[in-house]
Design goal:
Elements lengths: L1 E2 L14 E4 L9 H9 L5 E6 L2 E5 L3 E4 L10 E7 L10 H7 L5 E3 L9 H9 L3 E4 L6 H15 L5 E5 L5 H14 L3 E5 L6 H8 L3 E2 L5 E2 L3 E6 L2 H8 L4 H9 L5 H7 L7 E5 L4 E2 L5 H16 L9 E5 L5 H9 L5 E3 L1 H4 L8 H8 L6 E5 L9 E5 L5 H14 L8 H12 L3 H15 L1 H9 L1 H22 L15 H9 L12 H22 L3 E2 L12 H7 L5
Parallel strand pairs: 1-20, 7-8, 7-17, 8-9, 9-10, 10-13, 13-14, 14-16, 16-17
Antiparallel strand pairs: 2-5, 2-6, 3-4, 3-6, 11-12, 15-19, 18-19
Helix pairs in contact: 3-4, 4-5, 5-6, 7-10, 11-20, 14-18, 16-17, 16-18, 17-18
């Protein structure tokens, strides 16, 4: 066994797999040379026996033969790792379909946290980002579409479409907007079931060309954590929902007939423990389950259809990215770590709070959009009282049937610390919001006192994210900051590097470090399984500036 150590000169064990015939450069026998060779992912790595010591060969020829005794020339080859440029990670079909260089997705964080600038940065880096449209008024989504269509040209980008069970009119409005404005790719998130607006977006405009091939202009990348929901996305749409769309004149009968042959989504992100809406699933179990489901469903189609499964939730370090690709992920998706980047649509104070977070500094809290159903989102708890106050609101909602039934002591607490106004004033503000957004909610609230209470409580929950994004100094204890444990893992990995400070965090350098690191660590593991014992000092990857990464890859900035 070959042993590489940082404190002593490398020494030799046994077990050659072939011979290494050097080119113009003889093997080097020193620790820094081995580290540099592993880092140069565009070149092969050859670990060789140089007179009983471990060396590394560069730009030569590997002759693989068990035992390595069939040839006399060259050096015994102990381990070999081929080139692994980051662009080779992930599924080639995914990159081709979406026009990507890298199988790396920047997930849609709501309220514009995944901003126009962040989506643009991802696209220019050869990746894809999804604008965080969820929770924004239509005029702001209109503006984002204008900006990105102007800035991006043919570069890839997408928008979020979120399940809105308590506001179906809003979901319909966003879906119609995307169809009207030629938005051809969405990230569908928080869906518990398929909806009419979702299927309308997907299949409106589907047709056949002159060759008889089905053309579907709009694509969906679903983000799912439950197998039963994933099955619905990877399968053709139900006939009953297609019939409703036809009956409502949303799609034609011809479009419905063609839709029956295609899955709702060809790409699906297995969403593990993440920020925001999450079931806190462990990635190491969730991804294999989704891959098995993909294989099962793929066999049910009459004609071959490429169904691809990516991984999101917990992707925060080179090791986690490498693990995702090693398990078979078509792509990796990042979320929480992007919020701390300077391109995100949040405030500097939130970026600093995120940069100081540990893995245990997150918790679950009631969500604004599905409050009545008891659905929760994962948020930062360090430095804010939001999760505890949100839990208090849900406790009161479950205990009482109307605002007036809440005991005076509790009402006084709400008015002082939560609403900072009377309960009546809080309702008037809420009423004004829904008068513009969805008047039907007001009509329902006037007939149902418990629904009225829910709207007032949801108003606090909804505004808490806006306070965080704007950096309102008077509301810092009420900040709702969507965040998963990935943030703490990233901070630990970045500690001591230029990425430690929030003001130095940019999307492209972070993404390229994760991808290059994943390629490096994949090659390290490949050497390990050939019997080369690699210590922790080499089996790690530390952040590098973007210009150094591009230089290593032979690319221009």
């Amino acid at each position: 066994m070959a042993i590489l150590t940082g404190r002593h000169k490398p020494e030799i064990g046994s077990g050659a797999i072939g011979r290494w015939i050097p080119g113009e450069v003889e093997p080097q026998v020193d620790w820094p040379a081995i580290q540099r060779a592993v880092l140069r992912v565009s070149e092969p790595v050859a670990i060789v026996d140089v007179k009983g010591r471990i060396g590394v060969g560069r730009l030569g020829t590997a002759v693989l033969e068990p035992g390595g005794s069939g040839r006399a020339e060259g050096y015994p080859l102990l381990g070999y790792a081929p080139p692994l440029h980051p662009k080779l990670l992930g599924d080639p079909g995914f990159k081709t379909v979406h026009g990507l260089r890298y199988a790396y997705v920047v997930g849609a964080m709501a309220n514009g946290i995944t901003s126009v600038n962040m989506v643009e940065a991802a696209g220019r880096a050869g990746m894809i980002g999804f604008f965080g449209a969820a929770g924004l008024p239509l005029r702001e989504i209109h503006s984002a579409i204008d900006q990105l269509q102007h800035r991006m040209g043919r570069r890839p980008c997408g928008f979020n479409l979120i399940h809105s069970p308590n506001d179906p009119a809003y979901e319909w409005a966003v879906a119609r907007l995307y169809v009207e404005r030629g938005v051809h790719l969405v990230s569908a998130s928080a869906y518990l079931d398929l909806t009419l607006p979702l299927l309308y977006y997907r299949f409106k405009g589907i047709s056949k060309n002159s060759d008889g091939n089905t053309l579907c202009p709009n694509r969906i990348i679903a983000k799912v954590s439950r197998v039963e929901v994933a099955r619905k996305f990877l399968s053709p749409p139900p006939d009953r929902l297609l019939a409703q769309l036809v009956q409502g004149n949303w799609i034609t009968r011809e479009e419905a007939d063609l839709a029956r042959r295609l899955p709702v989504a060809e790409d699906l992100t297995a969403e593990a423990d993440s920020g925001g809406h999450t079931d806190n699933r462990p990635a190491i179990l969730l991804l294999p389950t989704m891959l098995a489901l993909r294989d099962e469903i793929s066999q049910s189609y009459a004609h071959p259809i490429d169904l691809r499964i990516g991984l999101g939730g917990g992707i925060a370090t080179p090791l986690s990215a490498a693990a995702g690709f090693a398990m078979g992920a078509a792509y990796v998706l990042t979320g929480s770590i992007n919020q701390s980047c300077i391109e995100s649509g949040t405030s500097d104070v939130v970026r600093r709070m995120l940069a100081e977070a540990g893995q245990a500094d997150v918790t679950m809290a009631p969500s604004a959009d599905m409050f009545e159903s008891g659905v929760k989102v994962q948020v930062l708890k360090r430095g804010t009282l939001f999760p505890f106050r949100a839990a208090k609101l849900y406790e009161l909602y479950c205990a009482y049937d109307r605002l007036e039934a809440i005991p005076q002591k509790q009402r006084a607490l709400l008015e002082r610390d939560f609403f900072r106004c009377s309960v009546q004033s809080a309702w008037e503000q809420t009423r004004s919001f829904f008068a513009d957004r969805d008047p039907g909610q007001i009509l329902r609230a006037e007939k149902d006192a418990k629904h009225k209470m829910a709207l007032v409580f949801r108003s606090y929950l909804g505004r808490s994210s806006n306070w965080a994004n704007s950096g309102d100094p008077d509301r810092i204890l009420d900040y709702q900051i969507w965040c998963g444990p990935a943030m703490g893992a990233f901070n630990q990995w970045a500690k001591g590097s230029f990425l430690e400070k929030a003001e130095n965090r940019k999307l492209a350098p972070i993404a390229m470090n994760l991808l290059l690191g994943a390629a490096v660590l994949t090659r390290v593991n490949l050497l390990r399984v050939q019997g080369v014992e690699i210590p922790g000092a080499l089996a790690t990857y530390r952040p590098l500036p973007l210009d150094e990464i591009l230089s290593l890859l032979g690319e221009d900035g």
